[in-house]
Amino acid sequence: MLKNPQTIFCRQLNCNLLIAFFMLSALSAVNAQSRRKPKPPGVPSEIQVTPYETTMIANGKDEALINIKIIDSRGDSIPDARVLVTFHVNGDAKILSAGNVTGFKALTDSTWQVNLTGSCHVILQTGSKRGIVKFEVKADSLYTGSTEIHTVQPGIAHMVTHDKYVPKKVKDKILGADISFLPQLESRGMKFSDNGVPGDAIEIMKAHGFNYIRLRIFNEPANPKGYSPKQGFCDLEHTKQMAKRIKAAGMKFLLDFHYSDYWADPQQQNKPAAWVGEDFTALKKSLYDYTVNVMQQLKDQGTAPDMVQVGNEINHGIVWPEGEINNLDSLSQLIYEGVKGVRTVSPNTIIMLHIALGGQNAEAKFFLDNMYKRNVPFDVIGLSYYPKWHGTLTDLKNNMADIAKRYKQQVMVAEYSQLKKEVNDIAFTVPDGKAVGSFIWEPLNSWEGIFDRSGKANDFMNVVYPEIAKKYLDVK
Fold first, then answer.
1. Helices 361-373 and 393-406, interaxial angle, to 10°?
2. Which of 16, 91, 153, 427 is 20 to 30 A from 110 in CA distance terms?
3. For the purposes of burial, counting CB atoms within 10 Å of the CB of 273, is it exposed (0-12), middle (13-18) or buried (19 or more)?
4. What is the DSSP string of 81-124?
5. Annotated catalytic residue: which of 148, 322, 415, 442?
6. What is the mean pLDDT of residues 257-273?
7. Average pLDDT of 365-373?
8. Is 53 tagged catalytic?
9. Is 278 a catalytic residue?
């Protein structure tokens, strides 16, 4: 699951590993900042902003907690760092209060300057207008921290169907990974090995405990403004090839529909170019037809997905502007078209709703409650968890436990990277029998990968994941 800045940076710059790594570790805001040399550990490097709600009610009263702290280049907090910082709010909201700061000075109606020691918190209050509020914290020589908050007016809920739906259960525990970058890495000549023995990355992962692979799919990624101009990585044909490899390895397969030509996440859910200009009826049909086509082609080659995400990190909606979170009825109808498309071809496939809200319990409840009110049928709740933007491990644990008790669906961590042991300990021990497991995001191409940059399996692969598999999957 809040716009996840990590998602933007690592995803938009996926074709350049060095830049992706730098952006992830530095959490930049502007190009000039991204050219700076990383500072040594222990030296203040950036401002981390962690919001606990990024969808708020535009009623002039709703409040959200935002935690702010100074961190070094490794992400460790610097509690004694004393910094003059500037808060800026762009949009219909205001700072109601700020804790652990001194010298609070209003520069304008939307800009405040304070002295911060280590960390602080801010309470933001909405106005009465729907829209997007941007909150930014700056300081000289530090990387800027920021977040976006969507202010909404939910309106009266209209059900997408009156059919009663009993969520299907995932019977086996999942230790999964999104390795959608694999074909791109292989196209650059990257080879993989384990203890000096060359091998297929998928086969190596299976041998070390992984049992599920997630693949993202874009509508037309080869478009000039698509994910993979001209090359078309992560299109249907590449997905079909990867699906064959997954099934040949004896693993299961999660398909992640982005419903876009480019990355879809909480700050961007742009419709495919082919759907631009369609009215809402045509848009729903296009989404349904596309889903059916993808599912049918996968089924025809014997690789129907075992699980499907109808959208990626959709807590701010899909297929904007019609499916933006401000249009909850339209959003639920679009999700339902995706659900119907999956079920038309493969009725037994598990359907996940994936939100980027690992530690944001209030916002997770807001989204899920509104899907329930509109009777959207689905089976699994998936959460993203990146500590900088989704809170502490305790936040994740409490959120997952609360969701498990509130809703009929099982719950899992659909994306994470850091804190591998800790995150899996939480994901596999959700109460009420609702635990499913986890998917690590792009461990072949991220800053905490399971192979090193030369393709050699490292300790994450050889030690950490076998231990997790042995503990939770009964793997000997």
1. 20
2. 153
3. middle
4. -EEEEEEEEESSEEEEEEEEEEEEEESSSSEEEEEEEEEEEEEE
5. 415
6. 97
7. 98
8. no
9. no
pLDDT at 12 over 60: no
Instruction: Determine which one of 313, 324, 337, 363 is catalytic.
Output: 313
β pairing state of 131-138 and 193-194: unpaired
Residue 341, pLDDT above cutoff 50: yes
Residue range 287-294: average pLDDT? 98
Contact status, residue 162 vs residue 139, Cβ threshold 8 Å: no
**Which residues, 6 or more positions from 362, have their beta carbon under 8 angstroms from its beta carbon?**
52, 53
Residue 19, number of CB atoms within 10 A of its CB: 15
Cis peptide before 154 (omega within 30 of 0): no
Structure confidence at residue 37 (pLDDT): 76
> By three-state DSSP, how is residue 185 classified?
helix
40 touches 48 (CB < 8 A): no
The letter for the amino acid at 154 is P
Considering only CA atoms, which of 367, 264, 362, 258 is closest in space to residue 310? Answer: 258
| Residue, of 21 and 189, whose pLDDT is higher | 189
pLDDT tens readout for residues 123-133: 999 999 999 99
What is the percent of the chain with per-residue pLDDT over 90, rounded to a whole number? 89
Q: Hey, CA dihedral for 457, 462, 467, 469, is it positive or negative?
A: positive
> Rounded CA gap, 472 and 208, in Å?
13
| CA separation for the pair 259, 317 (Å, rounded) | 11
Q: Where are the alpha helices (DSSP H) in 279-360?
A: 280-300, 328-345
Look at residue 446 in the predicted model and tell me its pLDDT.
Answer: 85
First vs last C-alpha separation in the chain: 33
pLDDT at 8 over 90: no
pLDDT at 476: 61
Spell out the alpha helix ranges (H) of 148-265.
182-187, 201-207, 236-248
pTM, entire model? 0.91
CB 423 within 8 A of CB 397: no
Q: What are phi and psi of 406, to 5 degrees?
A: -80, -35
